[in-house]
Amino acid sequence: MKTDDTLVREYLATVERESTALPPVARQELLADLSEHIEVARAERPGDVRAILHEVGDPRTIASTALHELGHTATPPTRKPNRRRSPAWLPLLLLVISAALPYAADHVLLDWASLAMRITAVVMVCRSRYWTAARKWTGLILGTLVPATMNVIWYLAFVAPQNYAVIDAWRWPAAVAGLLLTLAGAGWLWRTRVR
Question: Are 91 and 124 within 8 A, CB to CB?
Answer without folding.
Answer: yes
